[in-house]
Fold these 3 entries.
Entry 1:
Amino acid sequence: MNILLITADQWRSNYLSYLGHPVVKTPNLDSLAKEGVTFCNHFAQATPCAPSRVSLHTGMYMFNHRCTTNGTPTSFRYTNWAIETGKAGYTTSLFGYTDTSADPTGLDINDKRLTHYSEPLPGLDYFTPILDEVSEDWVHDLIAKNYAIPDRLWDLCGMREDGATWHEGGEKILPHAIPAEDSETWFMVDKCIDWIKNQKTSWVSHLSLLRPHPPFVAPAPYHNMYADSNLPTSRQKNTKSEQAELHPYLEYIMNNKSHHCPEDEKLLHERHVNYCGLVREVDDNLGRLFSYLRETNQWENTLIICTSDHGEQMGDHWLMGKSGFYDESYHIPLIIKDPTQAANGTRGVKFNHFSENIDIMPTMLDWIGHPIPTQCDGKSLLNAIRGESIPDNWRSAVHFEYDFRDIIDQSAEKKLQLHSDQCTLSVIRTDKYKYVHFAALPPLLFDLEKDPNEYVNVASDSSYATVMLECLQQLMSHRMQFNDRAFTHSTTTKQGLFTRPLH
């Protein structure tokens, strides 16, 4: 029995035709969903990439693992799915990246591992090395095919064909300079297939694809596949100034270069078209991988988990990228196909209870019958996958966080007049309400039944005073319940150390 964990970076929850997207077609993921369970209310626990991925790989909330931004080291005292499945006898691999920064404890100050956040997740038997956030193997493949390589390797991801693209006054949207069959997405799927071909024992492989992460430049034919489609319009209050007035943090982030939404409608539309094209490119390539598993009779003995690390604002609330507290940055897809007969009764089911990315590691370990470490804050989803009764204590809310400190230039600290440890927000979201607590800024409360677009902050409305108190109590109780357990479930006895299993 094998496990295939797939993450497609920056994929919003509803960009699947199986879930009714009006334009994007994802036939291969739709097919996977019809054989598995689709978790419709699935959320990431943090943004950006590194803190979110640490949560996914360790099963821990950010307030416990404390990787708060890209480049924050991950403590070696935490285990992860690669280490644990390795203990269970599985061969492990990574194709892509985990955005891991090395724990500096015991390392020389000049150690090169402290110059980037592209270290592989500890515990992997095989991985594809990353240089300047790009696959070294892919770069070597391009060189062998006589492609010109830019001085900055990251520029490979956004190279267009020569000329003016549509939003610059050209006649059409220009495609990526590298054709689809030589793209990094195609290359990584090929590498994953080649590795699986050589396995003689049970394996766990993590295919971590960059796309549809920016830069939003898709190769042909994906670059204009949706150019003439009526893509959903951005959910925005009437003006940027109205949006900024909602909260001081929003005023700050909306003027941040990384999250600035272009007012040029043609530019925003072109980005959206390319985003949709990149989604389709990922789906087509996953189709090649799925076909290989079927052809080699591994489809029926492989647990497949397909999700993302976080979403994408795509102009909603006058924001781009991923940050802050809006659902667009945290609500992501999750499809799980359990090949065992125990899951036959739930094939094609859409699960509407809340799930979180911290559930991925416990689910993987539960599926292979391996103990779930006490550090894990998440829950195994195996009950839902196999149609068993949902426990009475199943979560009634999701929790996610964002840490907006700027360790290098202190821009947020200066603009908002905060010190670094005050640059953080925490969200508790139920079906009815969403409460956003800032460490040192005013809170936000949204009535999701009346205001699903999160336009109106009702935190200061006296009629919501009881709701505010209940949300604050729920958030505090959540933090108290999930504080870092360390050795809290262990005690010394005359017979030696006794540890109570958490799950």
Entry 2:
Amino acid sequence: MSTIGRTIMPSMAGLRCAVLGAGGFIGTNLCRALAEQGAKVRAFGRRQSFPEALHGCDWLPGDFTDSTSVAAAVSECEVVFHLVNATTPASANVDKLADLNANVASTLRLLEACRETGVSRVVFVSSGGTVYGIPDLVPTPETARTNPITAYGISKLAIEKYLGLYEYLYGLQYRVLRVANPFGPYQTALKNQGVIAAFLRGALSGKPIEMWGDGSVTRDYIYVDDVVESLMLAAYHEGLGRIFNIGSGEGRTLNDIVGSIDRLLGEKIPVDHRPGRPVDVPVSILDTSFAASDLGWRPHTTFEAGLQATIEWMRSSRSD
């Protein structure tokens, strides 16, 4: 057993795994951690945002909608980490059919490939911020009603259900992680996701921070290293649970984040307010007590420590 932070982690040495969406934010961090732990990592994606970060991984370029490429990516693997996210909450609502085809239909083809090639488990990154919709209970547990207000959340929920069906019909094990709002190194905010990355890039470039709405939207922000730990635990988890909330359990408004950035940078960053968006749930905070009791996972990075580490990485990457 090895330890990262205060979480006792299973050994990843020798694990044959595929990371789908490896060139993205969470995928890059996960691949790095798996390779460092001695796993045999096949990294699959359309492009690498940071090629040097995937040193030690077997990079396999391909599109998630190409069933032949996906089948090749998962062949001879024990565990598949499904991190592909072809749309955003805003774009999914604009073209719902495209969202369904890109995410749900492509995932069904993935599950068929996993079944045919003998994959034992799929670990899927779902969305803790969208599957519940406007929550009845805050913090929100996994047992809460799921009533998404975006096509994006509906697609995530549909994939969760299909994972359950494939375990029931074929014995393909699965674990779902409903991740809150992750942030940290290697996040680019190029798809208009990742508010902290977007805020920091503006602030470090001497530009005003662009904010949707009045800044009262409240979210649960979780540092990416803690998310990676949950993914590793999910690869070997043998408890009863299948779906876990992964978040800090604490809420912060957009105005709170701006205040933290001001303090850490030592200056007042101007804010450019834009109209609020209907896809934004007013408050989303996750109850992570089930992940603590059944998955053995707890976050250990404080928000400000994670924010400081992200600032340092951004400054380093800009100079590079």
Entry 3:
Amino acid sequence: MGTNDQLKELVRQKYSEIALQEKAVNQASCCGSGSCSTEVYNIMSDDYTELEGYNPDADLGLGCGLPTQFARIKPGDTVIDLGSGAGNDCFVARAETGPTGKVIGIDFTPEMINKARENADKLGFNNVEFRTGDIERMPVTANVADVVVSNCVLNLVPDKKRVFCEIFRVLKNGGHFSISDVVLTGELPEALRRDAEMYAGCVAGAIQRDEYLDFITKTGFVNLQIQKEKPIVIPDDILSKYLHADQIASFRNGESGIFSITVYAEKPAAPSCSCEPGTC
């Protein structure tokens, strides 16, 4: 489908468009990637509206879980949100960490950063900031975060192992993360796996569930927990753009599955990691 740099540019372009779209358009798409469904399907996102700190202007309907709900954020914590978009998870995290804490959102799409900053200004928050940057090389010094959260973002990153090394680096000793993401069991049909829209739509970039969890433990994290798991069902009117009717039936009846998982893990109090020198 292209090199890592080409995939990143694809995602940047798609999410630049999404930043300027209405939420209803995003929810009618494959995780926001484009209007690939004829009806409004809430394919992946969970309902944030009951969470303290929720702001509808910051909710673009792009997530696949509620990581901040599970993140065990305490008053005064420093929280980093990877792929912060319009700021939805940052504002929910700010409600947990309070005025004595700090929330840093990182996103590599300038349009998203601008939208998030506008939302923070409207809310009058002076302890929520948004930084433009690549989560494979975060614009954050080491050992600063108590908690890292992310919602349906790592599946869009070509080098997922590098991201987990970066999470390890920026967390304080004893800190932890809670991340919602899309993973696979079995193989996706080739037509889905090679399609650029489905990559930007959080499906084709997903990796095997066991491989994903293995990255976490091999980086050096401990106390790994699956906090929530749910199946993702792609509607037939989306699948029909890629598969014939018999292929759709085979996919539905096969052993392959697409899941949203929310994963928790901790950086040890006395850490060691398997990343390359300089990343831990």
